[in-house]
Amino acid sequence: MKKWWLHSIKIILLLSLVIPMLAACAISDTVKEKYPLESVNGSGSQTSYVYRAADQTVPEVAKQLVDKKKPEQQSAESTERMFLVYSDEVIQIQQAPDDPSDSLIEIDSKEYVRNNYSSSFLEGYLLASVLSDLFDNGRYGHGNYRGYSQKDVYKPKTTYHTPTDQDLKKAPPMTVNRTGSILKRSKNADSTAVGSGSSSSTGKTGKVITGGSSSSSSKKSSVFTKPKKSAPKIRMGSGRVSRRR
Question: Which burial class, exposed, middle or buried, applies to 30 when counting CB atoms under 10 A from its CB (0-12, 13-18, 19+)?
């Protein structure tokens, strides 16, 4: 009972450490692992990363991200544009202008949103309470940016660019082509090592070394003695069965 109680306490302590760590993981980590990075803008605390979700609609992408981590607020469902607001970033999912079958996932830090977006533009998507907190009660939100798909019309303060090697290190996409290698066992490997068995590549099989002299192969004996198969001796009339000593 005591061991069970201690084991339960260990599990509870482990969960208390793991669950907050999982909850603290940014939703951007999920996007990085699943979609290729298309463009980068900003630096430092003001960053914007754009990923492409091929052959997926805006509501489909939004649902995947919401199922992974629930946002503080989600805008109404739309096939053209949706917003997801998290504690440290704002995600804008929009239909790709060059291919309507694709969706663009723009992950903006809150500092980037404050310094580039227009609060009046976001009023049509987010609650007033969220906007007030996001733009510090009107202190920010005087830009004219509306998203990557319209970056040439509503320009951000800096220019978007194709990801560099340094950008890829900061936000590496996991959809790149990768190569691997297979290592074969060396021909000079010791085949008599303990635990070695048959090898499909060499055709050799392992063997068991028994006791006895190595020079007299015809008189090798096992280290184990085979038990005798004779029946136990029975004393008639006593009603007892005794084993041979």
Answer: middle
